Amino acid sequence: MILNRDIRIKTDRLLLKPVEESYVDDINTHFTAEITRYMPFNPEGDRNDILSFVEESKKTLSDNTDLVMVAIDSENNFIGCCGIHHITSESVELGLWLKKSVQGIGLGTEIIMSLIEFLENNFTFKYIRYPVDKGNIASRKIPEKLGFIPYKKYRKNKGQSSFLDIVEYRKYYSI
User: Fold this and answer.
1) Tens digits of per-residue pLDDT, 25-50?
2) Secondary structure (H, E, C), 40-86
3) Fewer C-beta within 10 Å: the chain N or C terminus?
């Protein structure tokens, strides 16, 4: 499948669409140190960093390697970001973050289920990767609920003096 900026994925409660400049301020507001505690990012609150992120996301979309999306609700409120990354015939990787006020109500699982369905209907690959920090219990429940299995553990740099302890979950497919 060729990725494009017109892709829309509907979930039960949300609409997912490719990230664009109109969401820079929402992302900048909600992509906080608390939200990124278990992510390899240390947000500085710099709007230009988010603009660069959006530009890079548009480039990887046109390169057909990544689909970075925003999640919005029925009233067009920003909910968070999700993505399908490193798309190859071998594997794809899923990622997700939600703003604090909507965590814990099942939106993460709903989004990941919809991304998996989109992938299964549009791509051929051997497995899906879902890396998550071992301390992020709420996020670990998503792949565990959806039949992913722990594949490997590794450390990932978060900053000069901190690390993440990643559990990489995988879901395999017969080709």
Assistant:
1) 999 999 999 999 999 888 888 999 99
2) CCCCCCCHHHHHHHHHHHHHHHHCCCCEEEEEEECCCCEEEEEEEEC
3) C
Q: Which residues of the chain fall short of a pLDDT of 70? A: 175
Q: Which tokens sit at 45?
A: 């609150």
Neighbours of 66 (CB within 10 A): 20
Average pLDDT, the chain: 96
Q: Are 110 and 117 in contact (CB under 8 A)?
A: no
Residue 117's contacts (CB-CB under 8 Å, 6 or more residues apart) are none
Beta strands 127-133 and 149-157, pairing class? unpaired
> What is the rounded distance in angstroms from the CA atom of residue 62 to the CA atom of residue 3?
7
